Amino acid sequence: MASSLTKDSVDPSTEKTFFGHPRGLATLFMTEMWERFSYYGMRALLVLYLVSGGTEAATGSQGGGLAFTMATATAIYSVYVAMVYLMAMPGGWFGDRVWGARKTVAIAGGVIMAGHVSLAVPGQAMFFLGLILVAAGSGLLKANISTMVGHLYDGPDDPRRDGGFTIFYIGINLGAFVAPFVVGTVGEKVNWHFGFLLAAVGMGLGLIQFLLGTKHLDARSSLVPNPLSPAERKNIVVKVVGVLVAAAVFYGAVAALGLYTLNWALVPITLAGLVIPVAVLVRIKRDKELSGTEQSKMSAYIWFFVAAAVFWMIYDQGGSTLSLFADGKTADTVFGLGFPATWYQSLNPLFVMALAPVFAWLWVWLARKNQEPNTIVKFAMGLVLVGASFFVFIVPMNMAGDGTKVSPMWLVSIYMIQTIGELCLSPVGLSVTTKMAPQKYASQMMGVWFLAVTAGDCTTSLLSIGGVDLNGAWVIFFEAAAAVVAGIAIYSYRKKVQSLMGTVH
Predict the structure, then answer these.
(1) Which residues contact 118 (CB under 8 A, 6 or more apart)?
(2) Euclidean distance between CA atoms 197 and 201, whole angstroms
(3) Helices (DSSP H) in 216-346: which residue ranges?
(4) Closest by alpha carbon to 300, among 498, 487, 505, 435?
(5) Exposed, middle or buried, 186 (CB in 10 Å: 0-12/13-18/19+)?
(6) Residue 60 pLDDT grade (very low, low, confident, very high; cuts 50, 70, 90)
(7) Rg (Cα) of the chain, in Å, rounded?
(8) What predicted TM-score, i.e. pTM, was given to this entire model?
(9) φ and ψ at 3, to 5 degrees?
(10) What's the average model confidence in pLDDT over 174-202?
């Protein structure tokens, strides 16, 4: 049995490598790169397509969209992003208990591709079907592909492991960087549906090379670590069918009575995206099997979770509020060259690739001088920076109030500030999640971290559904102030939080 789970039978001297790493890393690198290409390409188009053809679309923009208001478009976008991260938890469950990581990723790629094909077909029904499929597929893939990267190495002490994940992370940002230039340009300037179709082609290429390259993956990727028993499988099927039938009956009745509007779908999903993270945290916190030390760490973790939710509430508006501002109120030329609104979505991955090595070096350099900020201070910095980015945003918003097209450099600056904040908070959040996870929930806590994104985006959606104008200067001001206050609060209570964290720093 042991030989089936290792690469002992492979002669290391003849095995092909990928930058000195196992050949399977190339397969996973390319899969993630093409998946991110499809995801970020579609995301760059999403809000612009939703408002296209309506009264709130940018002057001179092509028609053919769904003609929604900015508020509705922002709510749909926020719910969609929230569901991508919410689905990461059931995605991990499928990998652990039903299909295994390798099969789950293959199925996920097919689901994502089908979703983009649905988006490429005109019509509101096909559009929402496409969003559901892409969100579900992305959740399935996100939770399992990183697990397979880990399988390529000989445990957590393998000296190549961190480098392998760094290369994998480059694939994520490379796909995200290129997508808006290709998918975004075609969709925005030629035809929305051609753009969505290009996203499907990208995912298709990723899926083909994944299937061809699976022979290079570790055998553990095909195993189901904790398979469902027949009784468990039957119980789950009965519950899922019951929920689907109840939902079909309820929404069928609403539609038959002529009462159905889009909010009948958006509001329940948004509320679920707020309730589920809270319920998960409460369930873990109230688990009597946790030791006193684990309970204390979970109390500290709640601080980080709430802070992260506030951060992502603002940060993820880069694809909605900022994108709509870029489309309607920002000059579309830079140094005389055309600069479509979708191209702004390439700024974040560009800045991440440029600045991540700088921050990695900076933390090591400060650590050698015994001056590296601890986790709490880094979180506070991230919150203050993302709040500052929206304070900066108020300036071009006021400048554009009389119809003036502002310089693109305003948005470039805002995206750069947000990326610096991301590099202070996001990698640290992933690290502290693994460090503070109770042993019983070690494999589930990464999904809990993603729920902070869900909570933040669902808050944005709820505000939009409630009629709050997220494109208004005063709303931007209050969001910015909330982030800065949250950053100051977590910094002010750093000694209390640190005492709850115990030996974790």
Answers:
(1) 126, 127, 129, 130, 133
(2) 6
(3) 230-256, 263-285, 292-315, 321-329
(4) 498
(5) buried
(6) low
(7) 23
(8) 0.89
(9) -65, -25
(10) 94
